[in-house]
Amino acid sequence: MNILSTIYKTSLIILILAVLPAIGADRAWPVKGEIDLSSAFCDYRALHFHGGIDIRTGGTEGRRVYSPVDGYVWRIKYSYTGYGKAVYVLDNQGFIYVFGHLSGLSDRLEKIVREIQYSQKRYYLDSSFSRNQIPVKQGELIALSGQTGFGGPHLHFEVRNPQNMPLNPLTNGFPLTDNFAPVFDGLALAYQDTVSLFPDGRRRAFLEPRRDKSGGKYQIDTPVLIQGPFGVAAKIIERIRSNGPRLNILKAKLFIDDYLHYDGNFDQYDYEQTAMVDLTYDYFLATARDQSWLLLFEPGGKVFSGSSSQFEKGGVFTGRTSFSYGLHNGRVEIYDAAGNMSELDFKFVWAPKTLFDVGRVNDSTLYLRAGPDTRYIDIGGIAVYAVGSGENIQRLDSTLVESMGSGDFKISLPGNLKRINGFRLDVMGESGWVYTQEYVPSHSYGESQYGLDYELIDGGILFEVHSRDKFSLAPEVDLVYEDGYVKKIQTRVVSPLNFAAFYKNTCIKTRIIRIDLMDRGGSLPLSSVETNIILAGGGSRQTGFSVPGVIEVGMPGNAFYSPALVELRRADEKFNQSSSIIGDAYEIGPETMPLAKNIFISMPLDGKTDNSKVGFYRLNSKHRWKWLDSKILGNKLNSESSLTGTFAAIKDIEPPHIQKITPGNGTTVKSDMPLIKCNVRDELSDIEDDKSITITLDGEWLIPEYDPEAEILKTTPRKPLKNGRHDLVIKVSDRVGNERIVNTHFFVNKD
């Protein structure tokens, strides 16, 4: 029965593969000559994967683009944003080839486009064609490369299967010669639980790989002590030429103790999963413009066909039993599309939360009592360092440390302590790891002054406390909830002057209204911070913020991939256009957390004044306010956002600027088809689309081609001009209706 079942299943798979169309081997690259890439398939983009590859064009426009297959032009789409001018070719098997950011099309296609644009009096178009309307042959010129839509000069090229799923061109008919193996530029171990911190007080440990002489093998020399569930991230640099741009790889595999823990593949993806880019790369680092870190595990909420894990937590190492304690071997393998492979070996020691309890018998004796599970790891000894003023640190004689059996240690401190502020106790492993267990003051101190900072990260709160005096006692942080509950959090020492703690609770639904910094054993707070922090996500329950009469924020239960603490606070910094901001700007954070669905923002408006030019804006990474689609319903301004960040309601009363018009007013040109060009920019609400721009010449509508990045508007006459005067009118409006009209004229003299 098992044999028959296996034969049946195998036959069925073969039949399915025979029915599905396969991409042919007779594809030709859409450009001739050298092929060089500036972006790869599934590179990181904000909110989506890069759906194709970007072919370099030498920093110029006009590289000739040819059809890679026999087929027909299925679709032509023009817009000011996105792909700009784009052509879609469909081959005889149903595969789709997309060419974006074009500067122009072949004469045949250009004529078709202009006829459609003039008939509709629109620059924008999205037209589909049947098989017999625009047939093309492989190698036929179809377009010229450009920089319309977004980015500098390049050709964006995609391959999609008949189900409209993007495929990696380099593994689907368009291979490239690549003799460079991908490079490991870093490895990170990231805690995924609700409390753990590394000895430096961070949630991530960044490790620097060492490459051996062969070039394809890397390793981390020193094992890392781990005390909680963690995931692995790798900073990977793939290039197809020396000093070329960083590209994405094809595959990544994580092995722990030779078991495949995680498998990632970038051969194709579904458009419905494109937002998974925020859970495939390290979003926290990507928001800081370091977009090279791939997560080798599946965070909560991730559903991506390109990654898989046989383990319960999607590649997160959890170490649930005492059998997990001890030394483990990790290995990461990465492959590029040409089959080049690199691997990185690392080791970690899975350890209990508590290695030792440190007790002080008297001024000259410390006692380290081993935790119940410490015996499972390879403790090699204890190193004691005397810490003086400044950066003066000196290791004490090892004879001062005595092993007491049962894993305990006794430490005899030196008698002359006048110039010593305290001691650092390092636990050393036989396999080479070192863990700073404790900082111990040499004598008692009086009251110290502390400063508290906090950051929302990993769905929780990371607390950082700085002391004015070295070796102060670790303070306590109290979270005060709206219902009166107080959560007490003990910080840990991370240096003689600094303390840290991490807190995450996905069960308490009430709001955190205050954070108190408490001296150990004290009853009155040393300092307090008023907060507005809530738990969001994790179900159908909608949550949000409400500051009556000021701002309301609605967050659907599915707006977050997993439950997380979110904060609303007034932004105190000074912004551009501050005089135009209505009320205050507000931060919805953390900005380093991706959203699965949009959040909603509303603000009451004064019904006595004209609010027609008011809209919501979000501050972007360049510190510029960017418009959010806004509606006024009653006396409320409403909007939504796919990102957290800083938001403000701003009144825009400044019309767009129209400058540097050519031909200049009153000038004479010799061409009867002159290029008409000017600079157009708007400070706030921006130009929405082609309906916001009108150009007429002698009363006749012309095609308005606008580049929002370069802020250049251009057009040409529909037909050759006669000698004499010609009147030009340019009208531009922004999203809230501010309008500027410029009337000018020029002369044509072909003689």
Textual characterization of the structure:
- The protein has about 750 residues and is mainly β.
- It has 6 domains: about 140 residues, Glucose Permease (Domain IIA) (Distorted Sandwich); about 170 residues, Coagulation Factor XIII, Chain A, domain 1 (Distorted Sandwich); about 90 residues, Immunoglobulin-like, CATH 2.60.40; about 80 residues, Immunoglobulin-like (Sandwich); about 110 residues, Chondroitinase Ac, Chain A, domain 3, CATH 2.60.220.30; about 90 residues, Immunoglobulin-like (Sandwich).
- It is about 5% helix and about 45% strand.
- The protein is built from 4 helices and 60 strands.
- Strand 26 and strand 27 form a beta hairpin.
- It is globular, with a radius of gyration of 32 Å.
- The N terminus is likely disordered.
> How much is the average pLDDT?
92
CATH topology of the largest domain: Coagulation Factor XIII, Chain A, domain 1
Distance between the termini: 92 Å
For the report, how would you describe the main beta sheet? 11 strands, antiparallel
Helix-strand makeup class: mainly beta
What amount of the residues lies in strands?
over 45%
| Total tally of structural domains | 6
Q: What is the name of the CATH class of the largest domain?
A: Mainly Beta
Short description:
This protein is mainly beta.
Any key phrases for this structure?
Glucose Permease (Domain IIA), 4 helices, Immunoglobulin-like, mainly beta, nine-stranded antiparallel sheet, 6 domains, single chain, 751 residues, 60 strands
How would the blueprint of this fold be written?
Elements: H1 2-19, E1 37-39, E2 44-45, E3 48-49, E4 53-56, E5 64-66, E6 71-78, E7 85-91, E8 96-105, H2 107-120, E9 125-128, E10 135-136, E11 141-145, E12 154-160, E13 166-167, E14 183-191, E15 204-207, E16 210-211, E17 217-219, E18 224-226, E19 230-237, E20 251-256, E21 259-265, H3 277-280, H4 283-286, E22 293-295, E23 307-308, E24 326-335, E25 341-350, E26 356-362, E27 365-370, E28 379-387, E29 393-395, E30 401-405, E31 408-412, E32 422-429, E33 434-441, E34 450-457, E35 460-467, E36 476-481, E37 486-490, E38 492-495, E39 498-503, E40 512-518, E41 525-536, E42 543-547, E43 551-555, E44 564-570, E45 581-589, E46 599-604, E47 614-619, E48 625-627, E49 630-633, E50 636-641, E51 645-651, E52 657-662, E53 668-669, E54 676-681, E55 693-697, E56 700-702, E57 705-707, E58 712-715, E59 724-733, E60 739-748
Parallel strand pairs: 17-25, 18-25, 53-60
Antiparallel strand pairs: 1-4, 2-3, 4-12, 5-11, 6-7, 6-9, 6-10, 7-8, 8-11, 8-12, 12-13, 14-15, 14-19, 16-17, 19-22, 20-21, 20-24, 21-23, 24-25, 26-27, 27-31, 28-29, 28-32, 30-31, 32-33, 34-35, 35-39, 36-37, 36-40, 38-39, 40-41, 41-44, 42-43, 43-46, 44-45, 45-51, 46-50, 47-48, 47-51, 49-50, ...
